[in-house]
Write a structure and sequence with these properties.
Elements (H helix, E strand, L loop, with lengths): L1 E7 L18 H16 L6 E4 L3 H14 L7 E2 L1 H5 L3 H9 L7 E6 L3 H9 L12 E6 L13 E6 L1
Parallel strand pairs: 1-4, 2-3, 2-4
Antiparallel strand pairs: 1-5, 5-6
Length: 159
């Protein structure tokens, strides 16, 4: 089995849209990310890979999760196109290129794209993706190359 975590960045400051890329997390965003990261650790979730949009609010969320879960922050990968937007097909291409030794991969990014990814990876998703929403999706495959749209099963969602 392979598991993907789709994490929408935590709450960010509402100003700075003229430079959206550099918006930082609010205090609530920091505490939400710490809370969810700690909850994942208490569930014995061990990330093998963390991939983030390079936008401040996404990478800050990833760094907090990494610290909470004992993941080496230096190993967080940044993919610029996550910020600029990927189609579901392009996102699946990123997933299919994950190392086969990876069993659990975390992705940190933005709505509306991340809501679309969850909706398109699962057979059905009727929930919202508020800030810091974390959705665990299981794929009953032995290789990332076999992951397809609408083939995932929602394991759980933390908000």
């Amino acid at each position: 089995m392979k598991r993907v975590f789709i994490v929408r960045h935590a709450k960010a400051v509402p100003y700075g849209y003229e430079d959206d890329f550099t918006r930082d997390l609010t205090d609530k965003g920091v505490s939400d990310a710490q809370r969810i990261g700690s909850e994942l650790k208490s569930l014995n979730i061990v990330p093998d890979t963390m991939i983030s949009s390079p936008a401040n609010r996404a990478i800050q969320t990833a760094l907090i999760f990494a610290e909470s879960m004992g993941f080496d922050k230096r190993n967080i990968l940044k993919i610029e196109n996550i910020y600029h937007g990927l189609t579901t097909s392009e996102f699946l291409d990123v997933i299919k290129k994950l190392p086969e030794t990876t069993k659990t991969a975390f992705f940190f990014g933005h709505n509306p794209g991340f809501h679309y990814f969850v909706d398109n990876l699962l057979d059905r998703f009727n929930d919202d993706m508020p800030t810091c929403s974390t959705v665990a999706i299981d794929f009953n495959v032995d290789s990332w190359k076999k992951v397809e749209a609408r083939s995932g099963k929602k394991a759980f969602q933390l908000v």
